[in-house]
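Hey, I was hoping to borrow your eyes for a little while. No rush at all, and the record is pasted right below.
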Amino acid sequence: MRWVAIRNVRANSVLAQPILDERGRILLARGVLLSDNLLVKLRTLGIGSVCVEDALTDDIVGKDFISPHVRQQMLDATYSSLNDLASGTHVRYVRGARLRQKLRPLVEEVIEELRNLGGAEQFGTVYLSDGELYHHSVNVALFALSVGLGMKLSADQLLDLGIGALLHDVGKMRIPEKVLKKPGRLTDAEYTEMKLHAQYGYEILLNDHDLHGSARLISYEHHERMDGTGYPRGLVGGDIHLFGRITAVVDVYEALTANRVYRPAYLPHEAYELILGGGGTQFDATVVDGFVDAISIYPVGMTVELSSGYRGVVIHSPRRQTQRPLVRVIEDDNGQPVSQPFELDLSRELTVQIIGCEI
């Protein structure tokens, strides 16, 4: 299996991982043949890449963060929670314990799966343009919990971190869609409006009295920065809650490495270097270190383009040097299959760089 940009998928390729909508419902199941018509529809939905079966990489099996059914449940719970919270009727009359009771079993199951996995090795997700907010929220929660586990947070802390991270962008439900999904650069006025989502989110979550304060603060503080340059309050250093500091790092990384309506995705190592560069200034250095330990930025199964002209598939990402993975080369510089696939260890072949990937 390997991840391939939708523009490079050949007709009648076999889908190796299901495609989910914003609610976690299966749009296309594993094993479906991707006809020309289906590929056109997927492009229309804003899908940038899919995971397909491939004879040259059949032995490559990446480990997902979580099992497919749990990811589906997370998407469904996130969709319903964000929409319910954004409803004025729900916000006024919801019983305080309802949301935490709803999310707690699911988040605890996710924590257990992540603990058993021992790190974020593979992070395969397909974005639909209409479901971007929900997929992003789930991904941020998974990243945040992976970092939290590495930082040895307690069970109660992990629970609040996971719930708060799932809900961190609930304030965007109050931002006009024309601003939220604008395909170009925001005007100064639009950017000011967009920044209000942090305040809106905190106000919405204040109505759920069962949520712990630390979980609510994530929505309020995930855009704060250690040097005081963030928003909405311009907090500095330790004045930002630990959960806000964790979510700040993973929120930026996840957003940068996903295709957006207004820009293509950054290469994972480019986003990774931006995070590293911000450690100790914009981002908490301890959190950045935890992020480096927890996340594989070039996951197993990702198709990459090398500076040598070859194309290959990641088969292993070493810890703390995940920007230079072990790659199986499968295509030459003319895009033709090589006569014999071979492995290239980028941690040793320092003159070869990753210059593109299919996400």
In short: The domain at 68-294 is CATH 1.10.3210.10 (Hypothetical protein af1432). The chain has 13 helices and eleven strands.
